Amino acid sequence: MKRGRILAIKWGMNPNSSSLGIDVTFLLAGATALAIATPMIGALLRWRKARPVDAKPEPADAADAR
After folding, report:
1. Distance (Å, rounded) from C-alpha 42 to C-alpha 23?
2. How confident is the model at residue 2 (pLDDT cuts 50, 70, 90)?
3. Mind listing the pLDDT tens digit for each residue in 31-63?
4. Which of 3, 10, 28, 51 has its CA at 20 to 30 Å from residue 64's CA atom?
5. What per-residue confidence (pLDDT) applies to 3?
6. In this structure, how many other beta carbons lie within 10 angstroms of the beta carbon of residue 22?
7. What 3-state class would DSSP assign to 24?
8. First vs last C-alpha separation in the chain
9. Helix boundaries (H) for the chain
10. pLDDT of residue 43
């Protein structure tokens, strides 16, 4: 018996079964990438926004003298 050949592969386009499997796969991959990227972007933004804090606060007496 002669076997058939695979002519093409189309993601999510199998008429004999549900294409939900590939959709869930890409949703999980996207959610994973987003969960990894979000803290990195937040840390980068926080690092860029960081400002130096004054080492010597103004004494209370000097503030009252004004």
Report:
1. 28
2. confident
3. 999 999 999 999 999 988 766 666 566 666 655
4. 51
5. 84
6. 14
7. helix
8. 101
9. 20-49, 60-65
10. 92
